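Notebook p. 47: complex prediction with 6-O-phosphono-beta-D-glucopyranose.
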Amino acid sequence: RENSTVSITVVGASGDLAKKKIFPALFALYYEDCLPEHFTIFGYARSKMTDTELRNMVSKTLTCRIDKRENCSEKMEQFLGRCFYHSGQYDSEENFAELDKEIKKHEAGRLSNRLFYLSIPPNIFMDVVKCASKSASSANGWTRVIVEKPFGQDSESSAALTRGLKQFLVEDQIFRIDHYLGKELVENLSVLRFSNLVFEPLWSRQYIRNVQLIFSEDFGTEGRGGYFDNYGIIRDIMQNHLLQMLALFAMETPISLDAEDIRNEKVKVLRSMKPLQLEDVVIGQYKSHTKGGFTYPAYTDDKTVPRDSLTPTFAAAVLFIDNARWDGVPFLMKAGKALHTRRTEIRVQFRHVPGNLYRSFGTDLDRATNELVIRVQPDEAIYLKINNKIPGLGMRLDRSNLNLLYAARYSKEIPDAYERLLLDAIEGERRLFIRSDELEAAWALFTPLLKELEEKRIAPELYPYGSRGPVGAHYLAAKHKIRWGDLS
Ligand code: BG6
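Predicted complex, structure tokens below:
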């Protein structure tokens, strides 16, 4: 609105996330004319910096998708002109009150809305929320706070964090980011399911044999070992990114696209799942590997990681949803660092065609079932493996893909997840943010397992850097008569 203004404060402005993701995403939104007419961005952190130094820092790290476009530098100058820096302690009410004064100067009497992005470690969330909500209470519009995982380490610490935040904020003011929800293909999941007649009727135990959610990265924890060692891959990827994709994949049809309706369905499906047991999981950790004369380091070679760390950098798990739609269908998850490739995808393996007429024409029944692949990244795509006749006078079949490759179909660039999420937070759209009961249900699934792994000091299976991960993952799938789709 013309007489309103949005002040965005990036708390922890000199950190990695702010530099690599938040400022570039804000700039991309500005470039696309998606930010409100009156907005100001404040960087807040402990280090001393002038506005000019912040602007230099931001312009240097502007590696977003916009930087090759026409008049980018002109827009960039305008954008930087709207960025300011305020240095202060994270637990100082006084420093936040000074920031508030600065913000007010820029608001120039307009209706004031405040957005705080907490790009800081969770152990200081509470201090900042306390100080920021106090000073922002003078704002006459909305105040919202974006927080990003880790939301605790287990059910108890997460509940404590939620209780703490709610001393100063109501649930509607808290925007918990899971950046995977901002990815184009993850957002498309419900479009695919609920706007195409050909998928939704097949979306159940009757036709689907298993579902696989796979995350792999071809690099280790380089530089992040200190953080990672306190969390491990299950907390870093599975309990949030993969579980969120699973919930969207498996939920019942929401009564509308309203945020609460969608989140109600996600919570229901999460609550229908059984907490994981030790026998449902395989964990791994990468070891060093020499290839082409170069030695890739082991996880424990990282100086910030204890030499005897048992933290998993890989995990595979099988989950079941105890409801009428999914009873008995294994949902397999696999997440790993330092593997042979970088890819995130959902693979849906369908059941066999009963009494397959073409069994003797080149289809191996076990392998030739239909498979739908939703490739979240890189090279976004949706493809369906079908059996097809090889052209010619004979009758031989092979497996081919019906392929929707985004780069070939759409000329528009895919926005970064943070762009969508920041825009939604500014617009008050909560659909892609995690509600506290969702978070609670997600932790309930993983907490007993994590405790057991840690209490019993279960050793991870070592796998070479750059490999396909521990062989235990194959056995886990084989126990359920499944082959990982990405390996076959
Ligand atoms: C983060 C994890 O949430 O997601 C990282 O903490 C991981 O360990 C990252 O590398 C992956 O995100 P993306 O968008 O690069 O796939």
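Notes: The mean pLDDT is 93. The CA atoms of residues 190 and 248 lie 7 Å apart.
Next step: compare against the earlier run before touching the bench.
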